Amino acid sequence: MSRAQVALHTAEPADGAVAVTLAVPPAARRRRELGRFVLTVILPPVIVFVLAMAVWCLFTYVVLKPSRRFLLPPPQEVLTQGLLKWESVHPMLTALALTARAALIGFTIAVVLGSLLATVMSQARWLERSLFPYAVILQTIPILALVPLIGFSLGFNFRSRILICVMISIFPIITTVLFGMQSVDRGLHDLFTLQRVSRWTRLRKLMIPAALPSFFTGLRTSAGLSVIGAIVGDFYFLQGQPGIGALLNSYSAQLQSDQLFAAVILCSLLGVAAFTIVGLLSRRVIGKWHESAMDHSRS
C-alpha cells in the first residue's frame, strides 16, 4: 500500500509502546460511504421493485388467460402505451397538475388551520374538551357521505375539491401539534413559571419548539392525505377542467388498462413527491438538533 493511500502516525504512549494508527484518505472514505449508501439505501428498494415486476409479469402471463390479459397489461405495455406515448401521457400530466394544485392549496389551509386549532386547544383543557371531539367526528365520518352535501352547498367545482383535501388532511396536523405541545417536560414549565414569563413567551420559546418534531410527522401524513383528497374530489366534482381522478374514472369505464395503470403510477409519484419534499424540509429544520435525526445519521 503506497504512502498516498495510507498515512502512518506514530505516538509514544505512557507505557513506552509505540502506537500506530491508520488515517484513511478522504477519497477512500468517500468511496466507502458511497458503497454503504448504495447497499443500505438504493439496493433494497431496487430489489423489491424487481421482485414486484416479476410477480406482475408472472400474474399477467401465467395466471390470467390470454382473453383476460387486457385487465392487467404487462409492465412494458404500461410503460410504452401509457407513460412513453405523448398522446396518452399529455392529458394525464395536465390533469395531474390541476390535482397537485388542489392538493397544495388544501394542504396549506389544513396546516395553517390545524396548527391554529391545536395551539388554541393546548392553552386550556376546557378548550381541548370543547373542540377536539368535533375534530374526531370530522375524521371518522366517511368522506363519501359528505360529498353530496358539499356539492349541493358549494357546487361541484374546484373549491369543493379543496375543501375535501382540507377535511381529509387536517386531523393529523391537529393531533400531532397538540401532542407535541402537551409533551413538554413539566420541569421546564415550572422553570418558565418561576421566571414569570408571559403565556405568549411560553408558547413561542417552549411549546412551539417542542412540538416541531411531532408537527413534521403530521406534515408527512397530511401531505399524502391531501393528494388522496384531491383525487377523491376529482372523482365527484367534475365541473371545470378534469383532474387525474376524473381521468381514472374515464379510463376505468372504457377499460383502457394501459392508461389506467399509467395514471395510477403518476398519482403514486405525486404522493411520493409530496412526502419526500416534506421529509427534506423536516431534516432541514430539525435535522441538526433532534434526537431521532441524529440517530438516523449514525445508523
Structure description:
With 299 residues, the protein is mainly alpha-helical. The chain has 2 domains: 57 residues, no CATH class; 226 residues, Orthogonal Bundle (MetI-like fold), CATH 1.10.3720. It is built from 11 helices and 2 strands; from the N terminus they run ββααααααααααα. It has a two-stranded antiparallel sheet with strand order 1-2. A hairpin with a 7-residue loop joins strand 1 and strand 2.
Largest sheet: 2 strands, antiparallel
Low-pLDDT ranges = 1-12, 293-299
Helix content percent band = over 70%
Q: What is the annotated CATH architecture of the largest domain?
A: Orthogonal Bundle
Helix- and strand-based class? mainly alpha
Identify the overall geometry. flat
Number of E-state strands: 2
Q: CATH superfamily name of the largest domain?
A: MetI-like
The domain count comes to 2
Major β-sheet strand ordering: 1-2
The chain-level mean pLDDT equals 83
How large a portion of the residues is in β-strands, by DSSP E? under 5%
CATH class of the largest domain: Mainly Alpha
N/C terminus separation: 30 Å
Q: Secondary-structure element order, as H and E?
A: EEHHHHHHHHHHH
Counted by DSSP, the helix tally is 11
Rg for CA atoms: 27 Å
CATH topology of the largest domain: MetI-like fold
